[in-house]
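Task: sequence design from structure.
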């Protein structure tokens, strides 16, 4: 498995070959080779998450079932549902519920997608063209990084710095913006660090986008899973050229519904709808029925409260484990989200460590390598305690019995 480092992989954009690209209302032909890099973060999970004994690689919260969510009457209604295509941009009442999560938005400002993954994909295909530049705040989920580069966009990384509490240096960000920059993108709350920016910092980031008249995209799929305090603001409410991705997979603990959305300026949302004609056409009618119900304020809050309870309890378990193993690991605790990004001190590559733990201990974590940050691993804290507790014990067991390599930090 290759080691991915965003900086190492940076290229300058398109090279030869014909690529057909849908512009706003006509096709243009550009010269480019489409080179799709492996999305290592997802690939490792796809390969092993269903066969490993203790899967601690997930970033969401242990999922709920239909019985947990629907009343008997609703289940009966669901069984009677006609399985048509419906609205290919999302059923109207569902789009209205989603729009209601933001200030002054309507159903035309929203498109419902198959997971947040499709929302990110459509955002790239709607806003970016070969030759454009984007600035990506990293670490990041890296789907947008990888797909934008595949279509010939040049991606520049700005690091969220651990020493700044995983915040960016905004002066560095400004220095990367050029006349070709079309978009800044951030994953907020952050995957994998769980960092949340202050409202002041969010406004400062929006101001940079506004000063340069460029789009600001935020993947907000972890919004609502804040461990303490109120729900984080949405970038959508801070700047008129912002566009956000969200969905029900993480904070809302319903990844199997495959419901996500993109919300932003109506013309961008319309362009995303045009692209969706080429991807999945529509989302599942069954999922949309459930999604509309879980987004009603009372049930939404109940689900988020459950998520936060699980995450808080598991973070406390993880923090105790980190304290007990402070000669091997350290943690800057997450403020939101279903994962923690743990620094380890052994001089072993994180991908090697991941595969050794998987093979020898039956535990799956994610290596920092997939984010271009070796020396860390990501561990899910939304997993059931019965998995997390023995999984952590096996990891410390492994670290203690493999001290062949020297410690590289304290
Ligand atoms: C930040 C982020 N965005 C998008 C996704 C895709 O999620 P889904 O398509 O399940 O909503 C993930 C999955 O891990 C993620 O972490």
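Answer:
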């Amino acid at each position: 498995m290759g080691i991915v480092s965003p900086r190492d992989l940076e290229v300058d954009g398109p090279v030869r070959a014909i690529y057909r690209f849908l512009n706003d209302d006509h096709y243009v032909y550009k010269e480019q080779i489409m080179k799709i890099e492996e999305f290592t973060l997802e690939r490792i999970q796809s390969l092993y998450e269903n066969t490993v004994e203790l899967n601690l690689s997930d970033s969401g919260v242990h999922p709920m079932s239909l019985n947990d969510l629907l009343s008997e009457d609703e289940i009966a209604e669901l069984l009677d549902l006609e399985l048509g295509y419906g609205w290919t941009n999302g059923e109207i009442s569902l789009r209205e519920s989603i729009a209601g999560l933001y200030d002054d938005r309507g159903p035309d400002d929203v498109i419902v997608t198959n997971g947040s993954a499709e929302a990110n994909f459509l955002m790239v295909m709607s806003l970016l063209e070969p030759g454009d530049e984007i600035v990506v705040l990293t670490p990041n989920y890296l789907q947008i990084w990888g797909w934008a580069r595949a279509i010939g966009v040049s991606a520049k990384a700005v690091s969220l710095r651990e020493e700044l509490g995983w915040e960016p240096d905004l002066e560095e960000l400004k220095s990367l913006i050029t006349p070709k920059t079309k978009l800044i993108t951030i994953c907020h709350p952050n995957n994998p660090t769980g960092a949340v920016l202050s409202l002041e910092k969010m406004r400062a980031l929006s101001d940079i986008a506004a000063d340069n008249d460029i789009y600001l995209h935020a993947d907000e799929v972890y919004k609502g899973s804040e461990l303490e305090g109120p729900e984080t603001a949405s970038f959508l409410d801070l700047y008129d050229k912002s566009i956000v991705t969200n969905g029900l997979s993480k904070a809302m603990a319903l990844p199997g519904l495959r419901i996500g959305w993109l919300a932003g300026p109506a013309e961008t949302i319309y362009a995303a709808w045009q692209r969706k004609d080429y991807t999945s056409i529509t989302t599942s009618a069954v999922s949309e029925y459930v999604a509309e119900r879980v987004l009603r304020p009372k049930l939404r809050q109940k689900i988020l409260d459950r998520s936060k309870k699980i995450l808080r309890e598991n973070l406390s378990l993880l923090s105790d484990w980190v304290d007990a193993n402070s000669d091997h690991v350290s943690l800057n605790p997450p403020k939101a989200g279903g994962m923690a990004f743990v620094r380890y001190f052994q001089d072993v590559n994180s991908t090697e460590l991941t595969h050794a733990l998987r093979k020898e201990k039956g535990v799956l974590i994610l290596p920092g390598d997939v984010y271009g940050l070796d020396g860390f691993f990501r561990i899910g804290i939304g997993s059931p305690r019965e998995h997390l507790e023995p999984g952590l014990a096996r990891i410390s067991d492994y670290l203690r019995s493999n001290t062949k390599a020297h410690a590289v930090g304290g």
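The chain has two domains: 40-63+301-401, 71-299.
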